[in-house]
Hints:
Helix 11 packs antiparallel against helix 12 (277-288). By secondary structure, this protein is of the alpha+beta class. It has helices at residues 14-25, 29-36, 43-49, 85-97, 123-132, 134-142, 146-150, 185-203, 229-232, 235-250, 252-272, 277-288, 324-327, 329-338, 343-366, 370-385, 391-403, 408-423, and strands at 61-69, 72-79, 103-106, 110-118, 154-163, 170-178, 206-213, 220-227, 298-302, 308-315.
Amino acid sequence: MTDSEMPGLYKLAVSERLKEVGKAAGLSEEEMKTLANTGGLPQDVADRMIENVVGGLTMPLGIATNFRINGKDYLVPMALEEPSVVAGASKAAKIAREKGGFTVSNTGPVMIGQIQVIKVPSPEKAKAALMARKADILKKANDQDPMLVSLGGGAKDLNVKVLSSITGPMVVAELIVNTGDAMGANAVNTMAEAVAPMVEEVTGGEVLLRIISNLADRRLVRASAVFAKEEMGGEEVVDGVVNAYAFADADPYRCATHNKGIMNGVVAVGIACGQDIRALEAGAHSYASRSGKYKPLTTWEKDRDGNLVGKLEMPMAVGLVGGAARTHPAARASIKILGAKTAIELAEVMGAVGLAQNFAALRALASEGIQKGHMKLHSRNVAVSAGATGELIDLVAQKMVEEKKIRFDRAKELVEERSKGKKS
């Protein structure tokens, strides 16, 4: 590749784009055929979802079992490439089920739209003036989406704050919007754009940014569950999990991996159900840092009977209206498997899965270590990457597990040995 300028690429059909890119990148016919396979996503739909589409990238879709959430059973679709996550979530849900499963609540589908005003002559006066025009601003916002308003959603409140910044003081008007069954980015951004001229007029300043905030701290899910000590392997394992949590609470380096384990579950369900996983990640990690220190999104403690009690609290901005949840056929099928009827229900399931996945990782760390189960499942990926196909995948994987040498170089040796054996 010597030149990335490809004028007019966007005007070409998908197949023609792929040919041009393939030629520039030196792709083989087999590689181009692989990219052209968009799986459960029709090529014409993919071409309308993003720009310069040349194909698709498929990901395994697994089903986590055993989940009982607020007294209801769920089969949970999870799309990801990492082994042991679906198995870990399913095992955690089975253990939690013994004590009634997961209890989850939420604070409602409320998002914040921010309008930034700079060059304001008198920031505090501007703040008061905006609050005096609150009713007019909310009406203007709600005029943008009468359907949302008719369903009980829409702009419900206005918050105004004055910020000090490296470029001087600024006024920020915040629309508090109930987005209903939508994630809400489009609706909130449209409202922010619509009220911007009024905000500018009232403040005497200059409106710059008009955008949703992904720190969805008014859209929280709270999940909890009790895990019986007998099902976990005894009180010693319970203590191990509590100490592992204490480590994460005390040290941001450990906490990053602790919260990553939660997001393994949350993001996997999000991908399967066509959610904006970048928004979910941004919201989760900024919420974890709201105190000024990066903290765990879960807490773990031992109850008076010696059982483990886990709790999760985090933002969960998800939707069933609009976006990939509606346009991607596989996402629609996943949502049907899950059976979630509202965005709130989807958020509650994802909160429970996040707690379950965190439990699975901590339990493994506190008992047998994370690598034993994970690497056993990972061995098949290593075998495939070394060139194993068909039945050879399991044979090579099993041999590496027995030898406790789950490495690419060993897998390559085993594949070559088997190949030579067949030829002779």
